[in-house]
């Protein structure tokens, strides 16, 4: 992990262990077509009530382009979390470009449901 300072507005920030879990889940969600990539898609998923949780990159430049998402998440009662790297988030999303934000979407019969619930709980602990 790089030792660069993370923008203090990027709260809550997942620690490396949780980041790994989140990125693994994002990767699986991509395989199950349960992933929306990018701030616009994440915003739409939230507005449509489809988001299980939102992952944002703390190194997005400028971070302000993402900061409407936490507000929206709080409105909709959706857990959200920052990971350090947009590069890593992009890789987890299965694209070669950096991704500054992603939404794992709801799918009732999904095999990912238990993992999604576990991650939501871990994110909620950070927000206390």
From TrEMBL:
Gene Ontology terms, MF aspect: RNA binding
Alphabetized Pfam families for the sequence: Ribosomal_L7Ae
Domain Ribosomal protein eL8/eL30/eS12/Gadd45, residue spans: 21-111
Keywords of the record: mRNA processing, mRNA splicing, Nucleus, Ribonucleoprotein, Ribosomal protein, RNA-binding, Spliceosome
Gene Ontology biological-process entries: mRNA splicing, via spliceosome; ribosome biogenesis
Subcellular location: Nucleus, Nucleolus
GO cellular component, as recorded: nucleolus; ribosome; spliceosomal complex
Function: Common component of the spliceosome and rRNA processing machinery. Binds to the 5'-stem-loop of U4 snRNA and may play a role in the late stage of spliceosome assembly. The protein undergoes a conformational change upon RNA-binding.
Protein name in the entry: Ribosomal protein l7ae
Species this chain originates from: Isotomurus palustris
